[in-house]
TrEMBL record:
<feature type="transmembrane region" description="Helical">
    <location>
        <begin position="366"/>
        <end position="383"/>
    </location>
</feature>
<feature type="transmembrane region" description="Helical">
    <location>
        <begin position="236"/>
        <end position="257"/>
    </location>
</feature>
<dbReference type="Pfam" id="PF07690">
    <property type="entry name" value="MFS_1"/>
</dbReference>
<feature type="transmembrane region" description="Helical">
    <location>
        <begin position="296"/>
        <end position="314"/>
    </location>
</feature>
<dbReference type="GO" id="GO:0005886">
    <property type="term" value="C:plasma membrane"/>
</dbReference>
<keyword id="KW-1133">Transmembrane helix</keyword>
<keyword id="KW-0812">Transmembrane</keyword>
<feature type="domain" description="Major facilitator superfamily (MFS) profile">
    <location>
        <begin position="23"/>
        <end position="411"/>
    </location>
</feature>
<feature type="transmembrane region" description="Helical">
    <location>
        <begin position="65"/>
        <end position="82"/>
    </location>
</feature>
<dbReference type="GO" id="GO:0022857">
    <property type="term" value="F:transmembrane transporter activity"/>
</dbReference>
<dbReference type="InterPro" id="IPR020846">
    <property type="entry name" value="MFS_dom"/>
</dbReference>
<dbReference type="InterPro" id="IPR011701">
    <property type="entry name" value="MFS"/>
</dbReference>
<feature type="transmembrane region" description="Helical">
    <location>
        <begin position="184"/>
        <end position="206"/>
    </location>
</feature>
<feature type="transmembrane region" description="Helical">
    <location>
        <begin position="389"/>
        <end position="407"/>
    </location>
</feature>
<protein>
    <submittedName>
        <fullName>MFS transporter</fullName>
    </submittedName>
</protein>
<feature type="transmembrane region" description="Helical">
    <location>
        <begin position="263"/>
        <end position="284"/>
    </location>
</feature>
<feature type="transmembrane region" description="Helical">
    <location>
        <begin position="159"/>
        <end position="178"/>
    </location>
</feature>
């Protein structure tokens, strides 16, 4: 009896995963490989800029803001073009290719903060182009009741790459020698090679989802603007802005841990490993939970975890408990919010304008993040890290309350 019950449960679990669709797994494989490449750079970038090039916290805040927010408006352009030409895979592929080339650009940038900013902008241009078409393909490749699980599976695969990336960077630094000036260049070259493999996987294995012309709503600037007339979409954009303002960014979180515990430069990439391990373990379960209990409660719980991270960084806890709790909660924050927010947005948007609508949400969040990163860098510069992170914790709590007020199920569906 026990074995029969377990067999039925295993069969049901496999059925749910297969219902997610092969295209979701293919997109997950592309994201996995691409995130190995991206996180190799992300893991070393804060220490490279602040400790290697001696940028001030305010200057780093500007660069960190560029890393996520400066090309946010291009997301809308990319999303609209993808819907207009009905070729989401092509637009996503162009974005992945741009980000791959940018890894080589970091070699040419040298120690110039201006050149580094330009290369980072190119890299984020690629991310801005690819993210909305990719997420739209996920929403179009899985049944609506399983969107949380589909995004959870994708984000779990994505986080596998994010988990491996810092380890690969650490291995490259160890092989070359962290003190060697060429060590960072070696990381950038390896990162480019891995990113190129991700582009190849996209070309070979991801299937596009093209809405038949007869069934498609005409895609035009007027139709795209009409999305903003829907009350649910407007409230979602407000919530995305508020939540973006509550996020100070990975680099600052890891620099605060480094500041508090005096971590050696060679071990800095392991901070991202801890976060991504938590993300990897929790992404699929929290995505499935969002399908069962509702996506909004899971998103709000994720931002509650983020507020706790900020409080830990501002509090008296130190040593391994600080590392364990902070990185576990930070990974839980990403697992509960990254894909779940897109799963929340998908059903509110018509299929033919799905990419445009998702890009609007992502743009609102990215622009708010850009402002948050710059403001937090200035706060650290002039108030000190402890007061700055304390204010950020209060902002995260306020963002949870505002988001709950504007995204109640009754209002979103109105």
């Amino acid at each position: 009896m026990y074995l029969a019950t377990m067999g039925r449960r295993e069969h049901a679990a496999k059925g749910k995963l297969s219902a997610v669709g092969a295209n979701v797994f293919a997109l997950g494989a592309v994201s996995l490989v691409t995130d190995v490449s991206a996180e190799m750079v992300t893991a070393i970038l804060p220490v490279y800029l602040v400790l290697g090039l001696h940028l001030s916290p305010a200057a780093y805040g500007l660069v960190d803001g560029l890393y996520t927010g400066a090309t946010a408006l291009l997301r809308v352009v990319g999303g609209y073009v993808a819907d207009r030409v009905r070729r989401r895979k092509v637009v996503a592929g162009a974005g992945y290719a741009l980000s791959a080339v940018a890894k080589l650009g970091l070699l040419a940038a040298g120690a110039s903060a201006t050149a580094i900013g330009a290369v980072i902008t190119l890299d984020r241009t690629g991310k801005g182009l690819r993210t909305a078409p990719r997420d739209a393909l996920i929403t179009l490749s899985a049944p609506e009741p399983l969107l949380g699980r589909a995004f959870g599976v994708h984000r779990a695969m994505d986080s596998m790459g994010a988990f491996a990336g810092p380890l690969v960077a650490l291995a490259v630094l160890a092989a070359v020698g962290a003190a060697d000036p060429a060590a960072f260049d070696a990381v950038f070259v390896v990162s480019f090679c891995i990113a190129a493999i991700g582009v190849l996987l996209l070309v070979l294995f991801v299937r596009d989802h093209r809405t038949p012309k007869a069934a498609a709503t005409p895609v035009s600037p007027r139709a795209a603007a009409a999305l903003l007339r829907g009350g649910g979409v407007r409230r979602l954009l407000v919530a995305a802005c508020v939540l973006g303002l509550a996020t100070v960014g990975d680099g600052f979180v890891y620099l605060l841990l480094q500041h508090k515990e005096d971590i050696a430069t060679g071990w800095f990439p392991l901070l991202a490993v801890g976060t991504n391990l938590s993300y990897l373990l929790l992404a699929a379960p929290l995505g499935a939970l969002a399908d069962r209990v509702g996506r909004l409660p899971v998103v709000l719980g994720g931002y509650g975890a983020l507020a706790l991270v900020y409080l830990l960084l501002a509090g008296p806890v130190s040593g391994w408990p600080l590392f364990a709790l902070s990185l576990a909660l930070y990974g839980a924050f990403y697992a509960a919010t990254d894909g779940v927010l897109m799963a929340l947005a998908g059903p509110l948007l018509p299929e033919s304008l799905r990419t445009t609508g998702i890009s609007l949400v992502q743009t609102a969040q990215a622009l708010a993040y850009f402002a948050s990163s710059v403001l937090f860098g200035l706060a650290w510069q002039f108030w000190g890290p402890d007061l700055a992170i304390g204010v950020a914790a209060g902002g995260a709590v306020a963002a949870i309350a505002v988001t709950f007020a504007v995204l109640s199920p009754r209002k979103v569906t109105a």
